[in-house]
Design a protein that fits this description.
Rossmann fold, 212 residues, seven-stranded mixed sheet, 6 helices, globular, alpha/beta
């Protein structure tokens, strides 16, 4: 029986307010010393599933607030026997600090936030993933020189994400400030592919964690 998965989940609902417990990282990855790529809002997880097979010297972690998608994604991982990939069900906006409290120092080197739910109404703006506190927490754990890749097919969402990273002194936008015309990573998300096939624009930017 196929489980019905809601397209939109309110992260402010009571059921999503319990922070995730610290992760026992040594039980998740066989090569714990590899650099970590964090994909926030990974949905079905196909992006990091492909990335983990291409970049075998990296570890990948997908976070998703819709629990059935996480269970399904971990099944795909197990079927492929991937030991550098893991998916977790959580609300990133209240779980990142506890999740990464046990993360080996210098591990988190790349973050992707791609096509997050736009929550179009102004009164729902607090439901969007990229909040100032999330930027602050990523600044704490991302290594100097590490990158954050952002993209959306909704311009105001992309602008808001960029503004919040640009407002933090730990981050610097790479390039001229114009939207990137190409994805710098070797894998495109399903949403990115469908957007391009429709002839619609994708708004992309990369931020670097400032070196000390």
């Amino acid at each position: 029986m196929r489980v019905r998965v809601r397209q939109h989940v309110n992260p402010l609902a009571n059921k999503y307010q319990t922070p995730l417990s610290p992760l026992e990282w040594e039980k998740v990855y066989t090569q714990l010393n590899q650099p970590l790529h964090l994909d926030i809002g990974c949905a079905k997880g196909r992006f990091v599933l492909s990335m983990a097979q291409i970049e075998t010297k990296w570890n990948f972690l997908g976070l998703e607030i819709r629990e059935p998608l996480v269970h399904e994604a971990n099944k795909w991982r197990d079927e492929l026997g991937l030991t550098n990939l893991h998916y977790l069900f959580c609300n990133v906006n209240n779980s990142l600090l506890s999740l990464f409290s046990s993360l080996p120092t210098g591990t988190l080197q790349r973050v992707t936030i791609q096509f997050p739910d736009p929550w179009f109404k102004t009164r729902h703006a607090k439901r969007r993933i990229v909040q100032p506190l999330l930027v602050e927490e990523l600044a704490e754990y991302l290594v100097p020189g590490g990158i954050v890749f952002l993209q959306s097919d909704i311009e105001f969402v992309a602008v808001e994400m960029c503004d919040r990273f640009a407002a933090h002194p730990a981050f610097h936008r790479l390039g001229t400030g114009e939207w990137l015309t190409q994805n710098p990573l070797p894998v495109s998300t399903e949403r990115e592919i469908s957007t391009i096939e429709r002839g619609e624009p994708v708004y992309r930017a990369v931020f670097e964690r400032v070196r000390s």
